[in-house]
Amino acid sequence: MRTRVKICGFTRVEDALAAARLGVDAIGLVFYAQSPRNVSMARAAEITRALPAFVSVVGLFVDAEPDWVRDVLAEVNIDCLQFHGNESPEDCRLYAKPYIKAVRMRPDTDLEDIQAQYADAAGLLLDAYHPGAQGGTGSGFDWELIGGNLSLPLILAGGLSPENAALAVQQVRPYALDVSSGVEAGKGIKDAEKMAAFIRKINQST
Ligand SMILES: O=C(O)c1ccccc1N[C@@H]1O[C@H](COP(=O)(O)O)[C@@H](O)[C@H]1O
For residue 66, what is the domain's CATH number? Predict the structure, then answer.
């Protein structure tokens, strides 16, 4: 099976269209005020309206108020939710949308236990643990920490780039890779050449 690609943290229509032309499976929009990639509802709606068919849109939230998530869902065409904070399974199930639960990997993280709790998730996204930041840091983690009998689709994130994408596919064999910092020219500004190189490396190694 080929490895899917999600690129996260778009703030500009032209970058999302460039990613779509390169064949990305999903784009991520960050609705988290503390992120340098936070996108306004109006801009997010503009981006999603411009996208061609068959590119999924993932809305990323961090411990958001349910009313805020509902407001975004009412205005922006989102296919899947990504919960990147300390949301409980019940929090994640409040919306009639598939969801991905992010796990910030630490040495004692028990993925089987997390999988049991979030059994109805559309995927588990594994990211680096970084004190003081919820994600999007460009930091990786030790892939040897990934273990257990895992049946949910695994989405590998954290410090990925064109330089380590092939190794990530070969070593982890994830369902998908998710990248933000590693394909940027600046925070929230994507670099078309880096996005192309990232996707090319994955396709060559799948
Ligand atoms: O992108 C952000 O700013 C962000 C903020 C808060 C939580 C998650 C965020 N992004 C997600 O973090 C991972 C790893 O990103 P990176 O490639 O290491 O920069 C990824 O899943 C992004 O979707």
Answer: 3.20.20.70
* 86 CB burial (10 A radius; 0-12, 13-18, 19+): exposed
Q: How many domains does the chain have?
A: 1
113 is catalytic: no
Distance 40 CA to ligand 1 centre (A): 17
170 C-alpha vs ligand 1 centroid, how far in Å?
22
Domain of 40? 4-205
Is 8 among the residues known to form the active site?
yes
One digit per residue, the tens of pLDDT, for the chain of length 206 reads 899 999 999 999 999 999 999 999 999 999 999 999 999 999 999 999 999 999 999 999 999 999 999 999 999 999 999 999 999 999 999 999 999 999 999 999 999 999 999 999 999 999 999 988 999 899 999 999 999 999 999 999 999 999 999 999 999 999 999 999 999 999 999 999 999 999 999 999 97
The answer to pTM > 0.95 is yes
